[in-house]
């Protein structure tokens, strides 16, 4: 009887301790159809940009982040901020952003700094870390191409208030 309980307990421990794995690429491809509405590019070693396209074929959203794995530690998921600035200039050049509409919205919690900056043609959301240090990093940046109403203020592009 004790042996029966021991065997049941052993099976229960083995069953519960088995790792649960997410679907593989092949499984997802069998279940869902592929679309050209989203693509991912390795823009630097280990850095992925996932681009979403509208019906007109134009990119409307770009998410830039470190390629994650199931064994990632959060600090390894961060990118040097200088690299993020380079990538922002590649995907949303300052000349195409338009005029900045307002001061950035910022929220800080410990070393995490959440920033949203809105321009006439694009908004940029970023999660930055240790921004006061030269070794500042970012874990993600999302670029959303969309038109924003930016009220003209005195001194902005010569427009009257």
Describe the structure.
- Strands 1, 2, 3, 4, 5, 6, 7 and 8 form an eight-stranded antiparallel sheet that branches.
- The chain is extended.
- The chain contains four helices and eight strands, in the order ααββββααββββ.
- It has a domain at 35-145.
- Strand 6 (112-118) and strand 7 (122-129) form a beta hairpin.
- Mean pLDDT is 83; it is low at 154-161.
- The longest helix is centred in the first third of the chain and has 16 residues, at 2-17.
- By secondary structure, the chain is of the alpha+beta class.
- It starts with a helix and ends in a 16-residue tail after the last strand.
- The relative contact order is 0.12.
- The chain has helices spanning 2-17, 25-31, 81-91, 94-97, and strands spanning 38-44, 47-53, 59-66, 79-80, 105-109, 112-118, 122-129, 137-145.
Q: What attributes does this structure have?
A:
161 residues; alpha+beta; eight-stranded antiparallel sheet; 8 strands; 24% helix
């Amino acid at each position: 009887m004790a042996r029966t309980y021991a065997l049941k307990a052993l099976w229960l421990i083995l069953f519960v301790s088995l790792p649960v794995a997410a679907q593989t690429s092949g499984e997802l491809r069998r279940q869902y159809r592929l679309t050209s509405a989203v693509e991912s590019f390795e823009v630097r070693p280990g850095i992925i940009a996932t681009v979403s396209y509208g019906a007109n074929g134009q990119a409307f959203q770009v998410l830039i982040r470190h390629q994650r794995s199931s064994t990632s530690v959060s600090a390894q998921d961060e990118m040097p901020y200088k690299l993020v600035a380079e990538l922002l200039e590649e995907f949303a050049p300052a000349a195409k952003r338009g005029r900045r509409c307002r001061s950035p919205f910022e929220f800080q919690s410990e070393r995490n700094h959440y920033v949203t900056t809105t321009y006439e043609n694009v908004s940029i959301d970023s999660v930055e870390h240790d921004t006061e240090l030269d070794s500042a990093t970012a874990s993600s940046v999302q670029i959303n191409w969309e038109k924003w109403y930016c009220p003209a203020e005195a001194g902005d592009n010569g427009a009257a208030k």
